[in-house]
Amino acid sequence: MNLTLHVWRQKGPETNGKLETYQAKNISEDQSFLEMLDDVNEDLIKSGKDPIAFDHDCREGICGMCSQVINGNPHGDEERTTVCQLHMRTFNDGDDI
Q1: What is the pLDDT of residues 66-87, one digit of tens each?
Q2: Cα separation, 23 vs 44, whole angstroms
Q3: Contact 57, 65 (CB under 8 A)
Q4: 59 contacts: CB under 8 Å, gap ≥ 6
């Protein structure tokens, strides 16, 4: 699937931030949201751009460190699901996230 990501980017607390748009291409519906971000970051790094910063630790749905606001909701739309356990099959090809 192919997605459009709108990510808040801010260099630090003293600078103004803004939403930047990125394309996530050829994403497997079996990937977690964090794995999708890993793929996007690989593409950004290959093109000489700064990767998207995000916290994570266990990637097993235990610690909760991967909390992100997705489409205005903490952890996304899936109830009782951490971002590392949020699979891309909950999104549709062409979605804006």
Answers
A1: 778 888 888 778 887 888 899 9
A2: 10
A3: yes
A4: 32, 34, 66, 84
